[in-house]
Amino acid sequence: MHTLLLSTYEMGRQPFGLASPAAWLERAGLAVRCVDLSRDRLLDEAIREADLVAWYLPMHTATRLAAPVIERVGRVQPRAHRCAYGLYAPLNASFLRARGIDTILGPEFEADLLALARRLADITPTSPEATPSDGQVNPERGVGVPRLHFVQPDRRGLPPLDRYATVQMDDGTKRVAGYTEASRGCRHTCRHCPIVPIYGGTFRIVQPEVVLADVRAQVAAGARHITFGDPDFLNGPRHAVRIVEALAREHPGVTYDITTKVEHLRRHAAVLPRLHETGCLFVTTAVEAVDDRILSRLEKGHTRDDFVRAVEHCRAIGLALGPTFVAFNPWITRDGYCDLLETIAALDLVEHVAPIQLAIRLIVTQGSRLLELPEIREQVGPFDAAALSYPWRHVDPAVDALQQTVMTLVGTRPGAPRREVFEAVRQLAHACAGSRPPAPRREARARATVPYLNEPWYC
């Protein structure tokens, strides 16, 4: 029984979604091969020997990139059982089945993938650790999300960490970065978030000893920084602090970064100094908008003022904040987009914001809570299987044209300084709005003092 695990894209990270199930399969005595297609070619030989081929689909881009690979596997090895797993698999089940996927598994996939491999190999489980979970995730808002006891991921079949994204440090040096997950899912139900249709406001922790063992292995492999890829690291603040305190004790000098909501930056403000003390270099936070009307539509749980206060607090304690945005959405106006840019500039965040964040357009996925809003239902067209989303048009065609122009500008200048790209976008935005941009201002913090991962994409 040979299993081939494939990842198409995971934002420049060594795929946790391959390493974790690989460990489960190998512990059960099953042969497994991992191929990260963002780093290595997929050879026909690997496809031909596979009895089970499984694609890890944690995000929109990964799913779209998987489509031609699924079709290729079907041509090369039509007898192989094809499986898709991860957050975007159940969201796009119809699309995937139409391309030859036989089995769809959700984001809590390890036990179910093992059970599938055992069934195909006609093997009966003999140990408690190998017992399948209570079933495939049902995309009905958290129904059937299993609770797993994880095992340490096995990364031996993946490219070395130094082939992945690195952290650019404030002194100009680079650090090899590892990646792990301390939890999955999210307690919150933001309207636009693709996690919500699957988890429905629930989250699942990864046992601390498993997280720390994974970190230990990556540090031994050369990592000097760890990205915690949890959708929200502070969903369980006690769990989070326990892990980073243990990390700091065991690996002094190893830094890390997290992602958390603006709401949690405010609610758990007392925790943030401890994060800084234990080596947190920067925090990514999904601000999405600075217009309270838009934030209310998205049910983000924070306001513009909350964002401003979070920036001030993080700066005061030495935590770099990396905001992300859904800059173009059905409610943004030309003036509103200019206001977003001027707010970024006024808060001295130009160097903290990856240029792609200035071009991101709202994606309406299958099962999205955005479809609860009458104005969204009126604006979207039929589901576009190729784009894996419901297409929408802004009521002001100039806003859509501006988004396309900004995306082109950002996409054609990937290595340009952030401030240079920002000023070019600023000129475009104010020209579109018929206003005059303020004179460029110098940030309080120069680019060299802001640590960042050199992989800018976020969806």
Secondary-structure map with pairings?
Blueprint: E1 2-7, H1 16-27, E2 31-36, H2 44-48, E3 52-56, H3 60-76, E4 81-85, H4 88-91, H5 93-98, E5 103-104, H6 110-121, E6 166-168, E7 174-180, E8 183-185, H7 196-199, E9 203-205, H8 208-220, E10 225-228, H9 237-250, E11 255-259, H10 262-267, H11 272-277, E12 280-288, H12 292-298, H13 304-317, E13 320-325, H14 334-346, H15 374-379, H16 397-411, H17 418-433, E14 452-453
Parallel strand pairs: 1-2, 1-3, 3-4, 4-5, 7-10, 10-11, 11-12, 12-13
Antiparallel strand pairs: 6-7, 6-14, 8-9
Helix pairs in contact: 1-6, 8-9, 14-17, 16-17
List descriptors:
459 residues; alpha/beta; Rossmann fold; 2 domains; seven-stranded mixed sheet; 17 helices; 14% strand
Task: Provide a quick synopsis of the model.
This protein is an alpha/beta fold. Helix content is 37%, strand content 14%. It folds into 2 domains: 2-130, Response regulator (Rossmann fold), CATH 3.40.50.2300; 161-453, pyruvate-formate lyase- activating enzyme (Alpha-Beta Horseshoe), CATH 3.80.30.
